[in-house]
Amino acid sequence: MPVRHCIAVDCTSDSRKNKDILFFQLPKVESVLKKWLDLVRREGLNVDPREDNRHNVVCSKHFVDGCPTFEHPLPTLFSYNNYKQNTPRKTKNSHQGRTTENNCTTNEPTPKKVKLVKCNSEKWYPYVSGEIEISDSCTDENNNGRVAGVGSEFEMVQDHNYTCHNPSLKYCKEEELVDRIIVLETECKELHSENKKLREENEKLLARKVNLRDELLKKVLQSDESIKHFLGLPSVCFFTFFLQFLTPFYSKVSFWKGAGRSGSKNWQEKEQQKPGKKRKFTMLEEFVLVMMKLRLGLDNFTLSVLFGTSVGHVSGLFNTWINFLAQILESVIKWPSSAKVKKHMPLSFKLKYPNTTSIIDCTEIFIQKPKNCSAQASTWSNYKSHNTLKALVAIQPNGAFTFVSKLWSGNISDRKITIDSKYIDNICPGDEVMADRGFQIRDLLTLKGAYLNMPPFTHQRKNGIGRMLTSKQIIETRKIASLRIHVERAIRRLKSFRMLGGILPLNMKNLSSAMLRVAAAFCNFMPPLAKKFK
């Protein structure tokens, strides 16, 4: 610890020798610091309160109470006053020696004698009526029993002069005062009525509870454009019709409460009403919440704030509704017959490939990187350079989804996923399938009596330098590419549901296949991607 020395003149206090003495740093306040330095009287000492002055100290010998106190905050005991406190002497001319009588002899104005006269206050002073009451008789201050009648005089000190000495000034005449009072009364009444109106409006605003959920629903459901943007549905009419369609099934829905706790209940199998407390949200509110999460990719916390509920409730609603919608919309994605496909065949296919029944392609969904090394290897996609889940989708020529497989790990090949998803079982003899070069399934389709329309591969040049396509192959490649683009457009429409277009959390991988099928089903309600042949 550094050694401290008192800065007072002729003081030898040292923190090494004097253990019982306390040392106090100089104050930071500039005005107080100046008082301390004036009392210390040390020449050549310049102290800046903004700098570090921890070594400039004053010991406790120089304080009356041994330390700075409220009564004696300054050091006053020094060698130049023999360590004694200066006390003022009492003299005849000092303030302390003065008596009360001397105080009364000061040059103060003498109190004026005011004569109080009894008058009719209500007649002459209607605005102070009732404030001062002057009786016909009253006793004096000394309480000697002497009665002061009307017109008697007594001494009263006036601290202000309330009379108007210059009648030419404004409001000094009686008529002007009366007019001014009338104007002020009118303004007061107007302000009172305005204040009353503002209070009523304020009470109405306080009574009105702004419900963020209701305001959000109004904005979402106000037009077809907002419905399509927020929910991914075609129109308000479709939204209303679909809710009416769900009503009989909704009463039998059991909320998801975790693995092993969401099996079928007795009340679901029998014609009974669901037991337990009433649900917090209506069917419309729950459906909007789930579709907003699927369409916009909002997290559970954001939805809990918008709808005024807990994060756990949002998670349970989403898990329940996604599985519920996947079962209800299962029949929307179905394989059509060849006759129906040809009936709704677009003009572009009719002119180029009239026997095409389906266009297939694979789509991948990004997921979070798993911690397990084997899971990382199985979900890694060299094509996307990311951990993904992969699914096979098929559309008919007008752009509607006819087949959506479940999601597989990202490193699975196109041929493997085509076999394992049992897509080949839907192919009939005479069908034509359009695919990209990666689908090596020509032999599988040949066994079914079907044909694969695929862009031709390049072959080596005759000179052995590079690879090429013939003019006929280039024309065929362009024809196939102009039609196969519709499956890319369908996948882009599918990825407009941002839960599928972003990075999917690993805790939602069990719902990924259901979300994919629900999104594909709602895409089928959209207008066709290609115009119908007429």
Describe the fold and architecture.
With 534 residues, the protein is an alpha+beta fold. The chain has 3 domains: 1-87, no CATH class; 214-330, no CATH class; 334-523, Nucleotidyltransferase, domain 5 (2-Layer Sandwich), CATH 3.30.420. 38% of the residues lie in helices and 10% in strands. The chain is built from 19 helices and 15 strands. It has helices at residues 30-40, 100-104, 121-124, 174-207, 212-220, 224-230, 236-250, 266-269, 283-296, 300-307, 311-328, 338-343, 347-352, 373-379, 414-420, 442-447, 471-495, 498-501, 512-523; strands at residues 23-25, 57-59, 113-115, 138-139, 147-148, 153-155, 356-366, 380-381, 386-395, 401-404, 408-409, 432-434, 451-453, 459-460, 467-468. The strands form 5 sheets. Strands 7, 8, 9, 10, 11, 12 and 13 form a 7-stranded mixed beta sheet that branches. Helix 9 (283-296) packs across helix 11 (311-328), helix 10 (300-307) packs across helix 11 (311-328) and helix 11 (311-328) packs across helix 19. The longest helix is centred in the middle third of the chain and has 34 residues, at 174-207. 20% of the residues are buried.
